[in-house]
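Hello again,

I reread your note about wanting to compare the complex against the isolated chains. To keep things tidy I'm splitting this into two emails, and this first one only covers the full assembly. Below are the input lines as submitted, including protein chains and any nucleic acid or small-molecule components. They are followed by the predicted structure of everything together. The single-chain runs will come separately.
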Amino acid sequence: MVNYIIRRILWMIPTLLVITFISFVLMHAIPGGPFAGPELKHMPPEVIENLNKYYHLDDPLWKQYVDYLWNLLHGDLGPSYAERGRTVNDIIAQSLPTSALLGLAALAVAMTIGIPLGMLAALKRNTIFDYLGMFVAISGVSVPAMTLGPLLVWIFALNLRILPVAQWGSLKQAILPAFTLGFGSAAILARLTRASMLQVLREDYIRTARAKGLSEGRVTVHHAMRNALIPVVTVIGPLFAALITGSMVVEQIFAIPGMGKFFITSVLGRNYPVIMGTVLLYAVFLIFANLAVDIMYARLDPRIRYS
Amino acid sequence: MNDAKHEKPLRGRQVSSSPGRDAFRRLLKNKVAVAGGVFIILLVLAAIFAPLIAPMPYWVGELESNNALPGKEYPLGADFMGRDLLSRLIYGTRVSLTVGFIGAIAAFIVGISYGTISGYFGGKVDTVMMRIVDILYAFPTILFIILLMVLFKTTISAVSANPIVQGLIAVDRYFGGLLFIMIGIGLTSWVDMARLSRGMALSLRETEYVQAARALGAGDIRLILKHLMPNLVGPCIVTVTMRIPGFIGTEAFLSFIGLGVDPPTPSWGMMISEGTRVLRAYPHQAIYPGIALALVMLAFNFLGDGLRDALDPRLKQ
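Full-complex prediction:
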């Protein structure tokens, strides 16, 4: 098991190398540099030349790449071209917690709504709870953040006026974005929980437990739920990773200063180091999330063994 | 094996049924899936016959009637430039459906081929091919597409004498800015499919009928084409159908941030983006395209669910 984890983590290095390479190539393929934009048209060319020299943008590309990797090894992600004196590490330190908080809030919403709903739907089949749960499941999977966001804003912020429209900072401001982002995941969790619960309830050991005379409550909670939650837990890892990447949409809609928003701004402004840094970070997240899932699955289900 | 002589001959209306036909019949019984399918067909028709259905061309904007409320002249209202919302919604089906289907086709063709070959041959080939897939899989798709789109869009404005580039630009303009989005989505959609089909190919490889065919001397190509692929197609179609809402959503998001189609081509994502700017006063401008987007995704999800249940009724709970 430990071997497996170590191997997976070691594989991260070549993976990230390839990812940095692809990002680097793509970035530099985009014509125009960070200082060639229309806003800087009035600058005398010597100034622009100096800027390029300062940031080593006139070095041959391979050298820039190698320098970048070297700095990376030392934990330096480079300066931000857009704001003088700010490094990418700064930007990430500021925006990552925001995105992470948003992701966690959305995950919390998803779990508190999705899992109980799924359980209820399974326990009370073909009742109102089942249909409600399935309605949530279907709509959550289909209604994208771009539809839900403006709709919720219009209802709650503009008409009912009980929640703020956008931005980030207070608890109230977090409600709409977290819900918009988490609703889809809630639906996935509800569906999965219901399906898993239904399957578990049919198993022989449940029948045994009931035959032993255990109360229905204990059967449900202690035996059924535990086993039903196994596949659900495995899905939370990739779900969280999807939330991190999906937060880009929500950040755009609600003007939240997270990594997604910075990424878009920096791509449009050719802020190379920020671009590379963000891509790297997202990729690291993804890899770790997938790894976490595999580990958790192996842990919870003793039938699975990784060589 | 063939006991045709001893079987009772089929009489009258009896038609011999194939698994495909059985599955289709099961699908038709699923009312919700059928509703989804019908809705999609209607959208396809709307996309094809848009110039005939739409009350107004989508680019015509009378500035005096900008932000008009739904009424007789503009059934669903007008946007900030006075363009009819209903017409733009109808034309918007072209963008969304094109992106959805192209993504699906690319995922299907490239992904299945890649995965099947990798899974069938196994060993070194499989390891190398899957490593590539794993690395690409770790690359955040949306970020990749955004980089690609910026690359494409800025290459357009940069004047290039290269005739190939010029040709591509012309094609892109004809499609209203769609070409590069399709390329972007096509480049990223196959990875997921490849993984899936490789897994299936690995397990199918060991089945008895494949081993029997191999014992009879069937070559690799024949095995892949005639034995593996037909069995892969079913679950792959289901998966691809479920992925289509994702492609549509990606295009909508790209247009939402301005990296999608070029105006005045209507994309629901761009319409939502324009609508949110006037959300307080004219909510319908953002909500109608939002509903359209949700309905399309709903339809594909229902269809995908139905397909899955139809192709393997054992899975139904």
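For quick reference: DSSP finds eleven helices and no strands in chain A.

B.
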